[in-house]
Amino acid sequence: MSSAVDMSALRAWYREAMRHRVRSLEALRRGVRRNATTAIRDARAVGHALRGSGGSYGFPEVTVAGAMLEEAADRDVLRRIEGVLRLLRGVTCPDSAAATAAGSWLEEVVGKPVPEPDDPSEFRGWWSTAARVASVGEDDLAARVAEYFGLAVASLDAPQSTATRLIPEAVLAERDVLPLREDGKRLFVAVADPADLSLEAELHALCGREVVLEVSPPTRLAERRRSFLESRTEVVGRVGLAPRDEPGPDRILLVDDDEDSRTLARALLEGKGYSVMEAADGREALDVLASKAVTLAVVDLQMPVMDGKEVLSRMRTDPALAHVPVVILTGNEDTDLEASLIEDGAADYLHKPLDPRLFLARVASTLRRARS
After folding, report:
1. Residue in 312, 9, 71 with CA at minimum distance from that of residue 200
2. What is residue 126's predicted lDDT score, i.e. its pLDDT?
3. Which residues, in sequence order, are CB contacts of 253 under 8 Å at separation 6+?
4. Which long-range contacts (CB under 8 A, 24 or more apart) does 290-294 make?
5. H or E segment and range at residue 190
6. pLDDT tens per residue across span 42-62
7. Rounded to an integer, what distance in angstroms lies between the CA atom of residue 321 and that of residue 267?
8. Dist CA 111 CA 145 (whole Å)
9. Which helix (DSSP H) or strand (DSSP E) does residue 261 occupy?
10. Are 103 and 120 in contact (CB under 8 A)?
């Protein structure tokens, strides 16, 4: 869509459509708990439908969650359904606290209604309230949650250094996750909310390994993460080393009006050591380019204020910016459009929603060509 108004209307329509998906999945969840083959099949069909829709309406996280549900093994379908339900409730009620949806599955774990805590936006508040209602300790509640999702309870011993190096420090500081160990193909992490599919997908994209979740009470997890990050900072300062995710020489500008898309792309790029700057529209991008040295620009085609084609045109006619390669992101699979973008000076183009491996490969390839 060419205008913000049209996209806003589409997103509103999509949110309404997702309410029907929520009701369908809630009904299927009961059948999957009984291990009904038809319910498992139907749940995968819902995942397939979600996989094909989210990115088109500006919800790439729905596309990722749908793919994970469609491809889940039988034993994992229930946990995937829980994650997709939490995600879709967030999509359909964007102004509500994320913890509200988590509270719904905590109620099922406890077996009785869980009142809102004093601060419902704090997931630890939901957890401690659920523990009080169930008259159990947080460790016992963690065991119940782990059983509910078919997962193990996390042991928060000292994490393996090989595991911690797989996740950028910026992600460890911002997300409620602690890497525990890895075995070459799998990364084991401790989480408080095992229904957070967006976290699982982000970690998989960053490290390229199967991510195995283990459940920990959020209070203990937060304390262990804080201790780990403080010790890591002390070691870096003492020996004079730079953190693993210190930005490298390549500086990449992400230009996209979709904040979720920028967040995913930024996490992928920073995981590879790139320095990342952001702009929400074409005019803001030109302001950044005028004041910062940029190695590569990744620009969405359809944006308000100034679209990607106009940004490309202005960069190609500005002697100070003509050398900067531009990768265009587009949800339009129009061969003529793609050919015209290349003719206008784009170094490459990618279709949305982004495939993490292809995105990183195209960025690296474009940078290599620019240096040669």
Report:
1. 71
2. 85
3. 276, 277, 278, 279, 285, 288, 289, 292, 294, 296, 297, 298
4. 292/251, 292/253, 293/251, 294/251, 294/252, 294/253, 294/324
5. strand 186-191
6. 999 889 888 877 777 778 888
7. 26
8. 12
9. helix 259-271
10. yes
